[in-house]
Specification:
This protein has about 210 residues and is of the alpha+beta class. It has helices spanning about 5-25, 80-95, 120-125, 140-150, 190-205; strands at about 50-55, 60, 70-75, 105-110, 135-140, 155-160, 165-170, 170-175, 180-185. It has one domain: Glutaredoxin, CATH 3.40.30.
Length: about 210
């Protein structure tokens, strides 16, 4: 194996292993234990308090997750594939939710605070292909590291210069209207599959 590719392989395997563990625990994979209101086994293990800034430059905290079902996704605006694909999937999912969409929102947390200013996030999330009303969040490197740790998200800068990449976890975290973890929306699911999982969680968890 070419040694310069070894770190990439280790990064990918670590991210996949963590996402797989979360998926198993949250009921995405067989053998998980869950309750009618969500997976009690991980409700306290994912998420928590945070202090960030939204795309309008306003300070926000974990309270923005309350009163709606929220898909929390970590990525960055320079991401060439996973991030735009995920946001496009969530955009179609939002449409397919129909009347339920009023109780659903998407939160996009940048793992590239050095480049993802509030203005950059606002421009990026204005795409018609992305979910309407998506909330973009950024902050200091320390603030981003803290929220990533709270959600068990892996990310690492790769390369140097202005065109560096950021390797990161691809899972989406579905949070209930109390701001608590419900389940993982696995990367690669179709909009129909994603809609079905969200709608099922809404039915089981009650009104927002």
């Amino acid at each position: 194996m070419n040694r310069k590719f070894a770190p990439w392989l280790l990064v990918a395997l670590a991210a996949l292993a963590f996402a797989g563990l979360l998926a198993w625990r949250s009921g995405v994979l067989p053998g998980a234990t869950s309750s009618a209101s969500g997976p009690a086994t991980t409700a306290s293990a994912v998420g928590g308090p945070f202090q960030l800034v939204d795309q309008d430059g306003h300070p926000v905290d974990q309270s923005l997750l309350q009163h709606k079902w929220t898909a929390v996704f970590f990525g960055y605006t320079f991401c060439p594939d996973v991030c735009p694909t995920t946001l496009q999937t969530l955009g179609v999912t939002q449409q397919k939710l129909g009347p339920l969409a009023k109780d659903f929102q998407v939160v996009f947390v940048s793992v590239d605070p050095a480049r993802d200013t509030p203005a950059k996030l606002k421009s990026y999330l204005s795409s018609d292909a992305f979910p309407k009303g998506t909330i973009g969040l950024t902050g200091t490197p320390a603030q981003v590291a803290a929220v990533a740790k709270a959600y068990g998200v892996f990310y690492a800068k790769d390369g140097a210069g202005p065109d560096y990449a950021v390797s990161h976890s691809s899972a989406i975290y579905l949070m209930n209207p109390k701001g608590q973890f419900d389940s993982v929306l696995a990367y690669g699911m179709t909009p129909d599959e994603t809609r079905d999982q969200i709608a099922r969680a809404m039915r089981q968890g009650g009104a927002a």
